[in-house]
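User:
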Amino acid sequence: MLVLDCAPCFVCPAPHGKDMVSSRSATIATLSSSFLAGLEPPAAQAILATARIQRISAKNNISTEGCRATRLFLVQSGRARFYHLTKHGELVLLAWLVPGDVIGLVTIVKSSLHYMATAEAISDCEVLAWEHSVIRKLASLHPLLAENALRIALRYLQTFINRHAGLVTKTAEERLAETLVRLSDQSGQFRPEGIEIHATNDELGALADISPFTASRMISNWARTGVVSKGRGRVLLHAPEALMIG
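Assistant: Predicted structure:
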């Protein structure tokens, strides 16, 4: 792939003097991110203190596939999607990104690489950003950062292995059920009547590797049995365990 020399992908930097991370501004999701796993609190706070806060408006890119990877980002609030564009312009949804997730792990590598996929803000997001040179120095001072980055990369690899294997060994219904349960664990919001997931039929179908029509039909079938309820751009799981039976 051609490596593009892109302009910065983020927008709306915080006002001067208020764009550094403090112990108060770091969220629980940030502090519990797997990128910082195993670090002592003072070390984690020192790492966060070197980041700059960037605010990304919905529908803007945090990183763009093919651009040089000059920054590592950690999502502090909001939601984003991680996707790949084929040479024919088709969007392949790879994952949802939620608070605590990291974008641009390739910046851990010494040589200049490019972002492997695009991260686009679905809602207004706040991210922490480290320049390539800064994150490299931090990884040298705190080797656990590089180890955590490798663990995250391996987790993504395992996810894609499971997803590919599911295409061969599982039915469309099983794949969609697993996608709903996974999203409920990752980004679901607890409501009195169940767990709410914000996702369209197109997005659910893309993550389950089925068509939007098939996703809509299966969710409608589950809705008739009371397992889920469907609204515009959202699904409410009343009994997630029931989806995994069968």
